[in-house]
């Protein structure tokens, strides 16, 4: 049996290295060391000036740089700065004739991934350094990307929150306006237009919230058959010719209330999972049906939920899963794919979305016999079905509204005041606690925004329950 390391190296792509070195003796030595130690997995080309090196880097085909800091047209760390600016994603190994720890440390701080002393170099050391530099650079880029996305997500979530506050006021006052004018009147049309435009703006904030992973499902009445049929056009291209896509959709399928984009994500994740399980081709079948669930196996899942469901069934003829893999199928970050080929989040995301929709998902599989996923979503009430609602009541209780946004606070007063409630307002958690401390029995209900200055809503709730456990 061959050496696993050698086999892995033989499969790896050739690393293209640019050596920027003006000393021909040093350049010849480095090239000879790499030729004798890299096993053909590293190709090297040379530039004797920084300007020539930067010109070569501009085409984007180089994978790593070996850099001498003392060149005829540049010297010192300015050389490294220019290379990093020209090719910020490339790993750089600095070469020097000086054994100076301070210089080595500064080189790494300035953007180099490694530092080698020419007199101590060997072929194996050069190869290891280049591979280490590439891995280190990739790790740095991944960390930088993750930090950037987290920062953007935080920013997007904050913008969406503030924008939602304004839209809440616009839509709320538009609704109040609609209640106060005659249907069909000019003002009724004006308020309807205002509300419609605000709802379109709210769709933008939902996209921001989805990006920031803070989105609550935007449910609407949807036809799963139509969703699957539309998505099948895309899936047929993604699956390839080796996989047959078969649909068996019930003609009288009931509607469900769901977030369309999230249901599309569920279908896409499951179908791609099936595709990857059929590398030699096969069949993916998607079925829908109306079902009334009365099976003791599902009692724990159902709880007090309605028993009428729409079932989506996805079955493939792939390699299947053994019991150990099946038991962990929905675990976050669990994957059987090769490193770099999957995050292990696809099925975990599917599970979370279905749970959010008050449904559940079941999977069965055997090695060599494919996999079957069953998804159950509650049937949506028919438009004419009675919906449990309560008429607007009223009272004389005192409500403390903790809200820092003036528009939202004004809206709360406009809605609750005419119903007889007495409203007090605090603009942050600390002011709310002062009001409650001054009159412990004078407030019957607290309504609080989630994001508050100074003292957040979680801390406020904790403080209220500590001071008055029954509140």
Give a short summary of the structure:
The chain has 15 helices and 17 strands. The chain has 471 residues and is α/β, with parallel strands linked by helices. Mean pLDDT is 80; it is low at 1-11 and 295-306.
Could you characterize what this model shows?
- By secondary structure, this protein is an alpha/beta fold.
- It folds into 4 domains: 12-121, 3-Layer(aba) Sandwich (Rossmann fold), CATH 3.40.50; 147-211; 220-378, Histidine kinase-like ATPase, C-terminal domain (Heat Shock Protein 90), CATH 3.30.565.10; 398-467, 3-Layer(aba) Sandwich (Rossmann fold).
- Helices cover 46% and strands 19% of the residues.
- The chain is built from 15 helices and 17 strands.
- It has helices at residues 4-11, 24-37, 50-57, 77-86, 101-109, 123-179, 186-211, 224-239, 260-276, 299-302, 323-327, 346-356, 406-416, 429-438, 457-467; strands spanning 15-20, 42-47, 64-68, 70-71, 74-75, 92-96, 114-117, 220-222, 243-248, 256-258, 282-292, 308-316, 360-365, 371-378, 398-402, 422-426, 445-448.
- The strands form 5 sheets. It has a 5-stranded parallel beta sheet, with helices on both faces. A 5-stranded mixed beta sheet has the order 9-11-12-14-13, with helices on one face.
- A hairpin with a 2-residue loop joins strand 4 (70-71) and strand 5.
- Helix 3 (50-57) packs parallel to helix 4 and helix 14 (429-438) packs parallel to helix 15 (457-467).
- The longest helix is centred in the first third of the chain and has 57 residues, at 123-179.
- The termini are far apart.
- Residues 1-11 and 295-306 have low confidence and may be disordered.
